[in-house]
């Protein structure tokens, strides 16, 4: 007879959370504070402990966001085509191709087109003029100089006069105005990998990058997990958390079972949105009062619990350790009933 293969599962009442925390916490303390330098991109991508903290704290945006843009097959084989797309994608601002100066006496802003920088970036005078039309339809042109004159606007409360302060504010907006490219994506370079060329750039804007016809939308990836959640949904964000934590561990040559990482990702995303592991997230939302009080902000939790007459059911590990009881995991969860013989 052929023996049936039994699948190895988790032992009943196993303290998976504690084991998971130990399995990631122990190698986490051994991580160095090194930073990894992407070849060709002047971006220090946080790795090691800083990146791990960034992921579990569910930061709105990474300190150094990076986006990998893969192209369609017809473009990915040619370096020339890939570099052309990289130029189209990377953000280019007015200050990169022109000199911006404000005249606080005349209340005007003058933008002088720089021919050398413009030709290097393939930006014509007409393209620059088009980018400036969003600030004023009435632009005065004198050679390579474009003058923007501010006029008073009528509002519901009355006429809004032009001041030197408003001119200075607008001149800063003019400098940062987009001439070409995808907002939020900068310093794009072409790299080779897996027999094709792809673009790696600083920043992140998945939707903006996918609008380019040469980009393959199914293969655009960023290390900004919050943006992945916003664009692709919570399941994709969960997979991104697993990938990012695993990449950090692999880069430091630390082996952690993938199931521990998956448990963290599941805990962070089970409610439908990404929650941090900390006092503002999972640890601050524990059912037990003592469990919440054991992790930072002790007095706040105890005062709130006493003010609202909260009950402590002693369901967690921490709560039972505090009161000196057997923890309800492993053998501590099993109760035996024995029938005595008379």
Low-confidence stretches: 33-44
- How far apart are the termini? 45 Å
The count of domains is 4
- The portion of residues assigned to helices is 25-40%
Main sheet? 4 strands, antiparallel
Q: Based on DSSP secondary structure assignment, what is the total number of beta strands? A: 14
Structural class: alpha+beta
Helix and strand sequence: HEEHEHHEHEEHHEEEEHEEEHEHHHHHH
What fraction of the residues are assigned to beta strands by DSSP? 15-25%
Global morphology: elongated
Q: What is the alpha-carbon Rg in Å? A: 29 Å
Give the topology.
Blueprint: H1 16-29, E1 35-37, E2 44-46, H2 48-56, E3 66-71, H3 73-76, H4 79-89, E4 92-93, H5 94-97, E5 98-103, E6 108-113, H6 115-120, H7 125-132, E7 139-142, E8 145-149, E9 153-154, E10 159-160, H8 164-175, E11 178-180, E12 185-193, E13 196-203, H9 206-210, E14 215-222, H10 225-232, H11 234-251, H12 258-269, H13 289-293, H14 298-307, H15 317-323
Antiparallel strand pairs: 1-2, 3-13, 3-14, 4-11, 5-6, 6-8, 7-8, 9-10, 12-13
Helix pairs in contact: 1-12, 2-11, 10-11, 11-12
What does this structure look like?
There is one protein chain. This protein has 342 residues and is of the alpha+beta class. The protein folds into four domains: 18-64 and 226-269, no CATH class; 66-90 and 183-222; 92-180; 283-333, DNA polymerase, domain 1 (Orthogonal Bundle). It is built from 15 helices and 14 strands. The chain has helices at 16-29, 48-56, 73-76, 79-89, 94-97, 115-120, 125-132, 164-175, 206-210, 225-232, 234-251, 258-269, 289-293, 298-307, 317-323, and strands at 35-37, 44-46, 66-71, 92-93, 98-103, 108-113, 139-142, 145-149, 153-154, 159-160, 178-180, 185-193, 196-203, 215-222. A four-stranded antiparallel beta sheet has the order 12-13-3-14. It is elongated, with a radius of gyration of 29 Å. The model is unreliable at 33-44 (pLDDT under 50).
């Amino acid at each position: 007879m052929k023996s049936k293969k039994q699948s190895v599962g988790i032992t009943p009442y196993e303290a998976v959370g504690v084991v998971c925390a130990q399995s990631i916490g122990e190698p986490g303390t051994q991580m160095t504070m090194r930073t990894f330098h992407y070849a060709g991109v002047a971006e220090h991508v946080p790795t090691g402990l800083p990146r791990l903290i960034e992921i579990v704290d569910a930061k709105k945006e990474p300190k150094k966001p990076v986006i990998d843009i893969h192209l369609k097959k017809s473009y990915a084989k040619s370096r020339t085509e890939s570099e052309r797309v990289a130029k189209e994608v990377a953000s280019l601002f007015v200050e990169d191709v022109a000199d911006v100066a404000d005249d606080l006496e005349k209340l005007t802003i003058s933008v002088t087109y720089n021919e050398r920088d413009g030709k290097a970036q393939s930006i014509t005078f007409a393209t620059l003029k088009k980018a400036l039309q969003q600030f004023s339809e009435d632009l005065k042109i004198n050679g390579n100089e474009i003058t923007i004159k501010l006029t008073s606007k009528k509002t519901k409360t009355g006429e809004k006069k032009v001041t030197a302060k408003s001119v200075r504010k607008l001149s800063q907006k003019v400098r940062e105005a987009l001439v070409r490219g995808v907002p939020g994506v900068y310093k794009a370079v072409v790299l080779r990998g897996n027999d094709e060329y792809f673009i790696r750039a600083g920043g992140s804007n998945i939707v903006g990058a996918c609008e380019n016809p040469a980009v393959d939308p199914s293969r655009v990836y960023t290390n900004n997990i919050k943006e992945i959640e916003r664009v692709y949904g919570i399941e994709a964000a969960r997979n991104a958390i697993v990938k990012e934590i695993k990449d950090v561990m692999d880069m430091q040559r630390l082996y952690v079972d993938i199931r521990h990482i998956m448990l963290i990702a599941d805990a962070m995303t089970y409610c439908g949105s990404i929650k941090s592991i900390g006092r503002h997230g999972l640890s601050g939302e524990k059912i037990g009062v003592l469990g919440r009080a054991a992790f930072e902000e002790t007095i706040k939790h105890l005062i709130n619990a006493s003010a609202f007459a909260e009950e402590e059911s002693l369901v967690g590990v921490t709560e039972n350790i505090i009161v000196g009881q057997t923890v309800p995991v492993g053998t501590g969860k099993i109760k035996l009933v024995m029938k005595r013989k008379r």
